[in-house]
Amino acid sequence: MARIVGGITTSHIPAIGNAMTQGLEGTDYWKRFFDGYEPVKQWLDDVDPDIVIVVYNDHGLNFFLDKIPTIALGCADHYENADEGWGLQTLASFDGDVQFSWHLAESLINQDFDLTTCQEMLVDHGFIVPMALMWRHLPEWPVQGIPLAINTIQHPIATARRCYALGKALRKAIESYPEDKKVVIFGTGGMSHQLQGERAGIIDVDFDLECMEKVISDPEWLASLSTTEIMARAGTEGVEVIMWLVMRGALNAQVNVIHKHYHVPVSNTGAGVLVLENA
Fold this sequence. Notes:
- By secondary structure, this protein is α/β, with parallel strands linked by helices.
- The chain has a single domain (3-269), classed as 3-Layer(aba) Sandwich (Protocatechuate 4,5-dioxygenase, Chain B).
- The protein has helices spanning 14-21, 31-35, 38-47, 98-110, 125-135, 160-175, 205-217, 219-223, 227-234, 242-249; strands at 3-10, 51-56, 71-74, 78-79, 94-95, 116-118, 144-150, 182-188, 255-266, 269-278.
- The strands form two sheets. It has an eight-stranded mixed beta sheet, with helices on both faces. The protein has a two-stranded antiparallel sheet with strand order 4-5.
């Protein structure tokens, strides 16, 4: 049977992708941020997953403001990547697992999650930056990737609690898959940041650190917050933290913290990294 070997949280901002392309990892500005991923890379090497489900938000590459599904699942055998305007380098395409994806889709729909299934899907920086952070040092991608896009752009968006429930349904879907697959789930995005308006550039370190602790020990706390409450503290784009709850909902109530790291600023964002395993 398929099983979840753990979950990871990570930022996906495009500035990280440009830093990797330009070889800036060892500079004063970037070194501490990238150093925080070395234990993550080691953990992934140790657990050797077969599949990664990347929970992220599409930034206009597949869906624009006139048509945005609340939840969209990739159901393709491979995924090309493209730059949606940040000047990011195009990377090698990612292999998917069609049979596994359609199993997830059927299970989630049977659990009353009305999602959009995408048999063709381009992936943007929300997907490729986390993948590159974890595996850019290898000659090829060692895992199959499944994109799971959550709308955090065009309101109304899914609530934090709905994302948490989606994670619980995702776990049931994964564990009902009959083949022996090791799955890791990335909850990407955030942390606090806002790109426009009077509060552009906001970073709330206290809220970011509280979110990290609550995701570990009390995810119900974050799930109980409204979209308005999260944006009031974390900024309009900081609401991406709801995607962490998809990952967290897929794990046990009690988890072991393998690694925890927070760095600020990364561009105009607080960046938090967690590696969690089921207790």
